[in-house]
Amino acid sequence: MNGTKYADAVGAVRAMENTLLGKSDIEQLINARSKSEVKSIFSSRTGNQLADLNDVWNFLCEYAPDCEELKILLYRNDFHNLKAVLKAIISNRDPEQYYIAPSNIGLSELTDAVSKKEYDLLPKYMQKTALEAYELLTKTLDGQLSDSFIDRSALEAVQKSSEECGIEFMKKYAQLITACSDIKTAYRCCILGKSAQFMENAVCGSPEIEKDELIKSALAGTEQLFTYLETTHYSEAAALLKESSAKYEKWCDDVIMELAEDARMLAFGSEPLAAYFIAKEAEIKNLRILSVCKEFGADKETITERMRKLYV
């Protein structure tokens, strides 16, 4: 790949980084007295530029329309939408209320392809999953089983495509989100007493967290699960998961942000574009957390503890 291929796009992203919220902005938002004041402060700070992820995605696509590796960032949205469409078809409901944007395939296209069983109209990375998930759901009517299969398939697709694109940032991103998801899945399965067969269907596996070992330890109970995780690179995450799921989720988001911070420093390539998208994801999540906390009257200390790591 030509190192200067995305030079213009990186330049545009550098300019937009100036509108990202900083530490002082977050402190001001935390001190806001209401949801409306949070919104007002945010609007005055950013001018509502690229206020949602759809805007961010369109902005990136405008400057780098042929950047295929960026699409990997939306795979989990695509597979989530597949779950929504399958359930909607089975229950005769409208999937739109469950649809997540941005995505690599529109809701109407996805719905048409699945309902007509024309899976070749879907992106290649989800064709087989759509077919198998439809058959699994219609045969078993087990939505949880189907969902776990699709979630695992999404992670497999992310890993496969990141390996194929050959970009180290994307490979590491894939490993991190897979490991974080697998640990959470194994823990939930352990708590709920799920079978080995269910875990086999739900856990993906990655170079950092070996699938068979994770399942084996989860089947033996939470203490054995945490004992295994203490031998991996995710011992810190495991310690936080022992305390609370919220602290674990924050750790996962923050470690992805740390990866994005490293990628941000690169002068060329698609990495700074992906990093900016991840930064906006975190910013929007922080605003959502703030809004909910304000609505329920959480104190400043609680809100501060829940804030995700900032990009700037």
TrEMBL record:
<dbReference type="InterPro" id="IPR044911">
    <property type="entry name" value="V-type_ATPase_csu/dsu_dom_3"/>
</dbReference>
<dbReference type="InterPro" id="IPR002843">
    <property type="entry name" value="ATPase_V0-cplx_csu/dsu"/>
</dbReference>
<dbReference type="Pfam" id="PF01992">
    <property type="entry name" value="vATP-synt_AC39"/>
</dbReference>
<dbReference type="InterPro" id="IPR035067">
    <property type="entry name" value="V-type_ATPase_csu/dsu"/>
</dbReference>
<dbReference type="GO" id="GO:0046961">
    <property type="term" value="F:proton-transporting ATPase activity, rotational mechanism"/>
</dbReference>
<comment type="similarity">
    <text>Belongs to the V-ATPase V0D/AC39 subunit family.</text>
</comment>
<keyword id="KW-0406">Ion transport</keyword>
<dbReference type="InterPro" id="IPR036079">
    <property type="entry name" value="ATPase_csu/dsu_sf"/>
</dbReference>
<dbReference type="InterPro" id="IPR050873">
    <property type="entry name" value="V-ATPase_V0D/AC39_subunit"/>
</dbReference>
<keyword id="KW-0813">Transport</keyword>
<protein>
    <recommendedName>
        <fullName>V-type ATP synthase subunit C</fullName>
    </recommendedName>
</protein>
